[in-house]
């Protein structure tokens, strides 16, 4: 596969007159080649093909879709070192991280292939007729879940593979039977195109309609708005900034037909250091914290950006150890010059607030990098000005000293929705933790104990989501098998002749699904 | 229980200076007593109590919530004939219909009690730790679904019991663990207050916090908007007009924290009469159709308002038989003078459109009633002006003659989202029907064969919902056990000590739930 700088509309490579280039974030130098930016014409063409593909693609068998997902996984793996090297050049992320992310992306596609095959997502439910029921007979009712329609997916800057062209949203949407139109992130267009070509090849090999997948790269926010506004798009997956997510939510809500937007936007992922844990292991907590904070230059939505402890010598010891580790930390190149500049601005603005001090800064960085930073304040300042707890996307955190547990609780209550919330505790802290867990469960999608929130396992029990403004829709997860439900809706069939029922609901159960019959799950359908 | 005309804020009866009265729709005469209309102060008080109740109510055991729902059911049944008679006076609906609706409402509450006890809605999912996994260990991950927060429920005019104060949305929200603030429909305030008192008594008997339930009657749309705008409300259930639903969607989307709105709004519920069925049984089809159309004066969201067949003598025979039945039909009192007037206006407007003729009208009605009406046109007119297929809320339908099956398909494709879509077919029609079922599944939440869409079974497989504009959110159902998912969100617990886990996720499984462990359902946990 070579990078040709094209827009991919179904099976066609399209070029446009509007060109843009990726930039090496370490040097600011533009990278070859130039890429065609998609515009309204390409949105129109991709959406028309997606709509045309939908009726067929939505009704393909689980096996057909599972094989397609596996072919995408194989195709990405087969891209080999050139994919990783292009991603390194475009994002400044190191090789090992990108190799790990590639493994995660491929594994995620295979997980969704297994999920599609299981048929669990169909949720086949049958309430057989009761012809003799009084006062009225009960009809035969059969429910399944089906694809919602073509889906727009927005790639994220910080995961050029796992949350981008063939990331979690694309895998979940394809698994559900939804054609996907990807709005490619302009910071990694070469990486995006390589992956998009792998998806397209899998669509072709599987004999699927070309409109099953299209790829629209481009730097303009108008492109994304036009895609979300297109009447043929029925759902949106987005990972990015709060401003970007809110803008797409407004577009979606303002359409003649509003559609769901699953936007994962921002979080500071509060971490509470309980007294016993601080007393027992402030040094190892500080080491773990700084490692999590600076991982990937802090450019994770689960970055631990807000630490909370009760003021005292144990918290001071933690702060000193963390400050020492921050000063030792090696600056990494950030994803884009724009992200680097916004991060520097956010840190400077926070440092200038009354009551906030800079506890430590990392070594000065090269032109593309940013030093890590630990800031410190007291809880009363955050309670007075909640903006102190806003996300700074990068390797910076605010350490907050509270007067007592009551103030810790008030501080947590004052926060908006979060992706994660973490408690560090010793056995002696359990009674304190027990009072906080229910509160944290109202604030976040994932609660951790004695760990760090970076690192999101791709698994059935994972929830990567949370109440607004962490996401646009806290009823959902963007990681793990639960994500398929974003792109499904229920349909009930009443008294249909057997020959007209879709396979999952037929009496002979040709797909051998576990089905819920009269409210009871039949988990072992005969094969 | 007596009707006192109060607003019910938790345990308190509140009166206000703004009074309104119900009206006997048969005569237009006001009914005693006067009712206090809730305003901003009552919204504030009810939402404050609901928020205060939420942490406790959300974590009550399944048994506690199931008993509360059963106590509500018992309380409604115990209201006896006075409830039915008040509802008759306020809605003009006949006794048998209201007794049936009461049975449905009580049964629905008991169904949700059973559902809560089953714990299936918790969806307990456990991925145990893999400490030795390479390259990184897997943490222990445990997911459950929890209540989203206080919910606002809007009662509907046409089901004063089953879709009102203690209707499906209230039952589902209470089952999920969400406190409920009901905005009572102003057309049946006495009925609403009686039921609200039964809910409040059940809350008190169950030892639940008073803010678990409040009841805000009032005629003003500002009241509903204020309730949806309140930051403590986290979700909305609504059944009513498209204009009303769209207005609430706008309020919810415009909040600093947008929230989900489940609005069930409008549908014409297309019915396709396939050629073989028309040839074999046009007379019985006509009888069944007119019975469904005129049931409850046509005031059902599933009313069959659009019939489609291929032009010819069989369709003419159907039309003649239907027209005869329409002319024989007895007019019923409509729910409110306003609904009657809007219905008359909608029928007159449709009859005045080019290409539309009135095939038959029922006998003239008394002051509160409206004659049924069958209108007729050709498919090309509907294709040219989609507004011909807009809902007329009442006993009127448009019969559309299509030139051929291709035109039937085009007509169906042109329709917006629907609650239901129906096919009448003979065995010889199955090949035609097979081509339509997938299209109908994209348009509607429920597909019927050889039946009529009025009559919505309360069952696990039911879907009462559908793509916009039938509802605001086609991923959901307002009837049946699926409705509980409207009011739930997932939370993941990572590496929590056993003592800090909520009961559904503890290793000892104290609630004896069927849990999915490492992707496999363990359906028979030891008791």
TrEMBL record, chains A, B:
UniProt EC number: 1.2.1.4
One Pfam family linked to the record: Aldedh
Keywords recorded for this protein, A-Z: Oxidoreductase
All residue ranges annotated as the Aldehyde dehydrogenase domain in the record: 20-424
An example Gene Ontology molecular-function term: aldehyde dehydrogenase (NADP+) activity
Domain of life: Bacteria
InterPro entries: Ald_DH/histidinol_DH (IPR016161), Ald_DH_C (IPR016163), Ald_DH_N (IPR016162), Aldehyde_DH_dom (IPR015590), Aldehyde_DH_Superfamily (IPR050740), ALDH_KGSADH (IPR044151)
PANTHER family: ALDEHYDE DEHYDROGENASE-RELATED, SUCCINATE-SEMIALDEHYDE DEHYDROGENASE, MITOCHONDRIAL
Protein name: NADP-dependent aldehyde dehydrogenase
UniProt organism field: Methylobacterium phyllosphaerae
Biological classification of the source: Bacteria, Pseudomonadati, Pseudomonadota, Alphaproteobacteria, Hyphomicrobiales
């Amino acid at each position: 596969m070579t990078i040709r700088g094209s827009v991919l509309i179904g099976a066609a490579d399209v070029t446009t007159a509007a060109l843009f280039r990726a930039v090496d974030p370490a040097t600011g130098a533009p990278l070859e080649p130039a890429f065609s930016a998609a515009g309204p014409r390409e949105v129109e063409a991709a959406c028309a093909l997606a709509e045309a593909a939908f009726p067929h693609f939505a009704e393909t068998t689980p096996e057909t879709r599972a094989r397609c997902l596996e072919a995408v996984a194989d195709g990405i793996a087969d891209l080999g070192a050139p994919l990783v090297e292009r991603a390194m050049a475009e994002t400044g992320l190191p090789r090992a991280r990108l190799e790990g992310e590639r493994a995660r992306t491929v594994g995620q596609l295979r997980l969704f292939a297994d999920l599609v095959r299981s048929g669990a997502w169909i949720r086949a439910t049958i309430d057989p007729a009761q012809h003799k029921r009084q006062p009225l007979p009960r009809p035969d009712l059969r429910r399944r879940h089906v694809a919602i329609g073509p889906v727009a997916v927005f790639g994220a800057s910080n995961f050029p593979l796992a949350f981008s062209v063939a990331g979690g949203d694309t895998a979940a949407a394809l698994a559900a039977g939804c054609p996907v139109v990807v709005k490619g992130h302009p910071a990694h267009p070469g990486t995006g195109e390589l992956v998009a070509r792998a998806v397209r090849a899998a669509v072709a090999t599987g004999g699927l309609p070309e409109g099953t997948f299209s790829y629209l790269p481009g730097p303009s926010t108008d492109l994304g708005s036009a895609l979300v506004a297109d009447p043929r798009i029925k759902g949106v997956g987005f990972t990015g900034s709060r401003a970007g997510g809110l803008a797409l939510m407004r577009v979606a809500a303002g359409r003649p037909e509003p559609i769901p937007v699953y936007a994962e936007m921002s979080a500071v992922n509060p971490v509470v250091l309980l007294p016993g844990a601080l007393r027992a292991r402030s040094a190892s907590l500080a080491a773990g914290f700084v490692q999590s904070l600076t991982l990937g230059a802090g450019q994770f939505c689960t970055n631990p950006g807000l630490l909370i402890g009760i003021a005292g010598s144990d918290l001071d010891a933690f702060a000193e150890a963390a400050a020492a580790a921050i000063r030792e930390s090696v600056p990494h190149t950030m994803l884009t010059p724009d992200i680097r500049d916004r991060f520097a601005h956010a840190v400077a603005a926070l440092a200038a607030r009354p009551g906030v001090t800079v506890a430590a800064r990392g070594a000065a960085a090269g032109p593309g990098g940013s030093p890590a930073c630990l800031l410190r304040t007291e809880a009363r300042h955050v309670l007075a000005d909640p903006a102190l707890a806003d996300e700074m996307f990068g390797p910076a955190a605010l350490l907050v000293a509270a007067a007592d547990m009551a103030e810790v609780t008030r501080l947590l209550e004052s926060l908006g929705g979060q992706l994660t919330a973490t408690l560090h505790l010793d056995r002696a802290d359990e009674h304190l933790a027990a009072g906080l867990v229910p509160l944290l469960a109202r604030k976040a999608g994932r609660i951790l104990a004695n760990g760090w929130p970076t690192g999101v396992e791709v698994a059935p029990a994972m929830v990567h989501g949370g109440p607004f403004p962490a996401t646009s829709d806290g009823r959902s997860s963007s990681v793990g098998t639960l994500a398929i439900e974003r792109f499904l809706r229920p349909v009930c069939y009443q008294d249909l002749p057997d020959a007209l029922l879709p396979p999952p609901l037929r009496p002979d159960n040709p797909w051998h699904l576990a089905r819920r019959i009269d409210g009871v799950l039949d988990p072992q359908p005969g094969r």
